[in-house]
Predict the 3D structure of the following.
Amino acid sequence: MDDSHILSEAFSKIKDYLNNNQDNNLPIVKFKTPSELAAIIDLEVKPEPVSEKEFLKLLDQYLDYSVKTGNKQFLNQLYSGFNFPAFIGEVFTALANTSMYTYEVAPVATCIESEMIRLMNSYVGYTQGDGVFVSGGSNANLIAMFSARNRIFPDGRFQGYDSSLKLSAFVNEQAHYSFETAANLIGIGAKNIIKVKTNKKGQLIPEELEREIKASIKRGEKPFFVAATCATTLLGAYDRLEPMAAICKKYGIWLHADGSFGGSIILSDTHHHLMAGIEKTDSFAWNPHKLMNIPLICSALLVKKRGCLQHNITDINTSYIFHDIDKIEDLGKKSIQCGRKVDAVKLWFAWKYFGLEGYQKRIDNLIEMARYAEGIVQEHPQLELMAERQSFAVCFRYVPKYKTDLNAFNLQVREALRKSGKSIINYGYMGNTLVIRLVTVNGELLKSDIDLFFHNLLNEAKILEDELGAVKA
């Protein structure tokens, strides 16, 4: 194969893909079942290499049948959009192909990650803070809980977890499932994650938190970790950090803020009040790959106290990798990973490109687009707002003119819309009620994009409603 020719063709395909990415006359996804995809794409790796022509065809097929998450009608996940400077950063990161364990092999990347951690800590208010880029929000939550366990039981790093301690942790009842996974991994057990009641907005009730802590102590348990959620996956609810911080201080408990979804709102002068008290937490999970539109994965765990991440590691006397010749900090000494992808660089390129003010405007626009979508729901006679909008998520459903199972009908609307490739949106359950969830997480969204989404959704709903009416007749 001619690598130069393949590279030239690949760049041409990238250019075409980007040009087509925002063409709403093209589907976001050409929906196929797994068996249909297997019939189209030669997935099997065979003993002999493919030809150059076949290789280029595979590149086309991969892009052709993948979901266009950069399209502004992709409203399905908590990440969306195409970020040009971050994409360039990702390409250059792969080109340099280094790892983040030592300054020796990643001098520029080490300096950049250190600067990004410093900048992010400045927004949080951790004046003596630290941090590290990790492999996702779930991993950040794990390391936060791991750090809390090691603070209350430092010998556990060497001796293993002592179950007689009966450690207990507390989370919003709508918190991410990763906390139960983390409890499993660090040895305390998922059943010792206590889910605290929330109000109608989905916010953890501080009084309920203290009641659960007291009950845990009465049972002979040792509360050691509390997680606030900023914002919840379905409703976009932000737990109130100030009262939670006061409770955790009273009982000597580590307070973690899971900002995996909504943490980037801290950049906004207008809306950062939703995270008032963040400086009183002990750790903070922040995913720039969500509201900042950085390509997956780009996640960081920030901690209030410098040194606690390195304290987590049981043995760093590995002379074959950490040499300490120049007395420069090797970031691998505070990471549970050895080989670690360079994720800070693409964030750095994007932040340089847009500037601090540019990113503020992008975050503020997301709230404005959610507010606009909420208004459309409230004004339409057959759309029902299912919860008060708090941030980036709008939960609603369509109510047809004819009596039917609303859960089944709205799921059918969602599936018809998804498989049409015109718009993709997700759904979830509030209790037993299915709700359609619109999330505004693409920083380049315009009101016209929101209008187009509702046009597409209402068209699909009307088709199904007419079919329902014909059956009723």
